[in-house]
Amino acid sequence: MSSAETGPPRVTLSRRNLMHGLALMLAAAPGLGACSGGIQPLYGLTASGVGLQERMAQLDIATIPGRVGQRIRNELIFQASGGGELAPPTHRLEVALTENVVSTLVKPDGDALGQTYSVQANFKLIEIKSKKVVLTGTSYGRAGFERFQSIYSNVRARDDAENRAARTVADDLKTRVAIYLSSQA
Predict the structure, then answer these.
(1) What is the mean pLDDT of the chain?
(2) Which of 68, 122, 154, 161 would give a disulfide with 143, using CB separation of 3.0 to 4.6 Å?
(3) CATH code of residue 111
(4) Is 136 left (phi over 0), alpha (psi -120 to 50) or beta?
(5) Would 150 be classed as within a structural domain?
């Protein structure tokens, strides 16, 4: 016997075998989905039977101080309403920001070639009817930017970094609030 004959048996898949396997997987898929015990799509109906977009439109977002705070708030309002009208609020989202800039890539003469802008958003979701805090947490956003000789370039680079970090925080806040609202009756 040669060494090639002692290896594992070779399996060839025919088109018929592939189609049979695919049919078995499709037949088992509904049963496997039922095993998940309550896992449902985030943007389906909420526990109360109302669509999540309608629940998000009932979110009042408090004013957040500063340029970055305004960017976060505007992004959240747009994501909650889709650009349409907001419904009478059932919940209020309050956010407090902490901003920080750290120099990176420092040259021997002390000049920084890059910086990292970071924002920390501590938030609480309040049920308006009972004035009870139902969700708290912290979201983070970070974005790096380069430093240039031109002052205008430095200002634009930092503004762009702030905008990217604000978008990251807004997306995270929206997702966390949506998860909470989708599970409530």
Answers:
(1) 81
(2) 161
(3) 3.30.160.150
(4) beta
(5) yes
Residue 126 within any structural domain of the chain: yes
Provide the terminal-to-terminal Cα distance of the chain, rounded to the nearest Å.
70
Quote the pTM value: 0.71
Inside any domain, residue 43: no
pLDDT in tens, 108-125: 887 778 899 999 999 999
Domain that holds residue 97: 52-183
HSE-up of residue 109 (Cα within 13 Å, Cβ side): 2
Determine the distance from the C-alpha atom of residue 17 to the mean position of all C-alpha atoms in its chain, rounded to a whole number.
41
Query: What pLDDT is attached to residue 34?
Result: 47
Indicate whether 97 belongs to any domain. yes
Contact 76, 56 (CB under 8 A): no
Cα–Cα dist 72/59, whole Å: 14
Q: Please name the helix (run of DSSP H) or strand (run of DSSP E) that holds residue 147, with its range, or none.
A: none
